[in-house]
Amino acid sequence: MISVDKAVIARYEHKGKNFEVLVEPERAQEVRKGNKVPLDELVADMEVFSDVNKGERAKREDIIEAFGTDDFETILYYILRHGNIQITTEQRRKMQEAKRKKIINMIAKNAVDPNTHMPHPMQRIENAMKEANIHIDPFKSPEEQLDAVISALRRILPLKIETDVIEIIIPATYAARVYGTLKKYKMTKERWLDDGSLYALFELPTAVESEFLDFVNKITAGNVETKIIERK
Known about the structure:
By secondary structure, this protein is α+β, with helices and mostly antiparallel strands. Helices cover 41% and strands 25% of the residues.
């Protein structure tokens, strides 16, 4: 289970009654996109509340009337796909700031000034992001936003980013199930093999490489072949 401190409220209203669950905002967005997410990465509590802040649980008869079932996972997915994710201004600010810092760190580790071949200090990158008025989406991962941030920064700051071309082969058992989740990364080539496996190439900043490899191993339970075939 995730920490309550990292959770936000997802709410669905039915006939004037609220049904609320505590969820991790980024993973909740994955569900809204149609992907499956393990419960222990998605929720802080396997309870449906009528009011989370007051600690009031929803009545079973109200749950059955609203959702036709009392199965928590079914209800959770329905709330996420048909309800609203509630975050306070402070929660939004903290989420944006955490992602901003990670993006700055990723750029500082992997970008150089092509004129001097020296890395840019983190403060310079941060100042350039402010000057470019770059918006950080609190619901998207830093990896998803990195390309757009780099493109915006290049109008102000000379940047050269090292990238890796990564080859993966996912067996048929997992391929169709995880395909949508993989699309959040820059897939430059894909081919479905005769046995139903997915062959794909990804071009990613070196900063994202280890996180990407951890991610594909996790969603396939380690049933994936990966190979770095080029570094640019």
